[in-house]
Design brief:
This protein is about 35% helix and about 20% strand. By secondary structure, it is an alpha/beta fold. The protein has one domain: Spore Coat Polysaccharide Biosynthesis Protein SpsA, Chain A (Alpha-Beta Complex), CATH 3.90.550. Strands 1, 4, 5, 6, 7, 8, 9 and 10 form an 8-stranded mixed beta sheet that branches. Strands 2-3 form a two-stranded antiparallel sheet. Strand 8 and strand 9 form a beta hairpin. It is globular. The two termini are about 30 Å apart.
Length: about 270
């Protein structure tokens, strides 16, 4: 695969669920969880810096409530990219659709503002899979996540070939491919929202999954057929990519892993 990626649009989902006060934000005295400081910078800043460091980034959009956009903008580094702010909808599906408006046929890379362990390498792998797919998504095996940190994740999707965790990193070949975002309309994660998995996979596919009859690739092939799209999994070697900042426990884990990265970078320099 060429090291030079095609131009792509980076999208960061940073909105908050209406009426919900995030405990981490409340404890830090900020209005949005993505502004919580970790290792000297807001959560969302770590994500922005990873995307800016990825070759091929052409536009960068952050989906957030309009009243929060100036606060996020003030927390970000100076950059040659003009960051575009898109008003968040009240669900993930419509937020993704809003972010895809007006980008032409360019691929979209979608992640979340609390995905602080994101790296340019992971972004490159997920975008590279679009050469053979309409949609790609990053996963990590349970073994690799536990190797990164034993407290990194507690929920895994069990398939017959292995157990995996989602890395909150998705790529779409163009705006038309974002129709698969309907799977996320109800918000939350499949592990926490069983009905959402039923709606996405369909009852027969879900039954096969629960009986241990589907592999990860097989399940995504079936999901893709529901939307007439080819969906490709990208299994990342570094399980840290599956650890985002959801609560006090994962905040501590992410802070530890970010500190280790900084130490390794200092030694290498």
């Amino acid at each position: 695969m060429s090291s030079q990626l095609e131009p792509f649009v980076g999208v960061i989902l940073a909105g908050q669920r209406p009426g919900r006060v995030d405990p981490l934000a409340e404890a830090a005295g900020v209005v949005n969880k993505n502004l919580v400081p970790i290792q000297g910078a807001a959560l969302v800043r770590h994500v922005v810096e990873a995307l800016i460091a990825t070759p091929g980034l052409t536009r960068l959009r952050i989906v957030v409530e309009p009243e929060t956009a100036p606060l996020i903008d003030a927390a970000l580094p100076a950059s040659r990219f003009l960051i575009e702010y898109v008003p968040a909808a009240n669900n993930l599906a419509d937020s993704v659709y809003a972010a895809a408006e007006g980008v032409g046929d360019m691929p979209l890379l979608v992640t979340t503002g609390d995905n602080v362990l994101l790296t340019p390498g992971a972004v490159t792998e997920v975008l590279g899979a679009l050469k053979v797919a309409d949609v790609s998504l990053a996963m990590a095996t349970q073994r690799s996540v536990m190797a990164a940190h034993p407290e990194g994740q507690r929920r895994f999707y069990k398939f017959w070939d292995d157990a995996y965790s989602n890395c909150n990193l998705y790529a779409f070949a163009g705006p038309a491919a974002t129709s698969v975002a309907e799977s996320f309309r109800s918000g939350g994660q499949f592990a926490k929202k069983p009905m959402r998995m039923i709606m996405a996979l369909g009852p027969i596919n879900l039954a096969l999954l629960l009986m241990g009859r589907l592999s990860l690739r097989g399940a995504l092939n079936r999901l893709g057929r529901r939307f007439k799209l080819k969906v490709e999994p990208v299994v990342l070697a570094d399980g840290a990519h599956a650890i985002d900042v959801d609560n006090e426990r994962t905040f501590g884990v992410a802070e530890t892993l970010l500190a280790r990265r900084a130490e390794r970078a200092a030694v290498a320099a």
